[in-house]
Give the backbone structure.
Amino acid sequence: RTVYVNGEYLPEDQATVSIFDRGFLMADAVYEVVSVLDGKLLDFAGHMARLTRSLEALEMDNPLSEDEYLDAHRQLVERNGITDGLVYLQVSRGNPGDRDFAYPPKGTVPTTVMFTQAKPGLADAPAARTGWKIVSVEDQRWGRRDIKTVQLLYPSMAKMEAKARGADDAWLIEDGKVTEGTSNNAYIVKDGKIITRELSHDILHGITRAAVLRFAREAQMQVEERSFTLAEAQAAAEAFVTSASAFVMPVVEIDGTSVGGGKVGPVATRLREIYLEESR
Ligand code: PDD
């Protein structure tokens, strides 16, 4: 695989980053994941807009222009022959000096890395036909989940707990309400309405969420942005999640209770079709 590090394209085993990099020592880094279908980047502009917001929230300089990011994404897709898969992009604050909790607010040289992951048949994931099983786990992440940082230890632990309990993913619960999945936004369908938590610091502002809600409204579906409890989700007609890598993924079981009779529902199926049609 060819990877990108600070302007250079290198074989992955020759790419290096300093051990003093604050991304490595302090998770002082932000990231984006852009899906690739048929060699095409999905929702690229949206991901770049969120990258800019994440960097600004952490007072980090943006090392590249949107055109330069686009060129690097395209080059990596091309050089690695990616038809279906993703491009991972990470910008960390770099290593302005010794390990120190304080950092110079601006002007440090960030570390920029990008790499691809091939995922053949990404759009035809068999799970999209059977749906995911979800378990609930307490949301113990920090309070700025709208910034897409690489502090992913708690979501990783929640994912491991889900797997240990025979499920595909976990929904995180705070104050009795679902915030989101470990790496996706959460939805239910009730009385024909699509319900998903409103945007705040409590959840990541999903780029797929924005696209799916736009397509839903264009298709005259009703959308309600509000939080919901686990019990409401278990009693819903349908449930699903969205993310750049899962697109629209139906949920058929929550904490052992079947949702929608344990079958993938029509709204999730339709939204997945629309999303894949419209964003390709
Ligand atoms: N995760 N919520 C969280 C906590 C996420 O990590 C993600 C994305 C999403 C969905 O956002 P988007 O639609 O922009 O992908 C919601 C990526 C895919 C990841 O960590 O791999």
Summary: The radius of gyration is 19 Å. The chain has two domains: 2-121, 127-279.
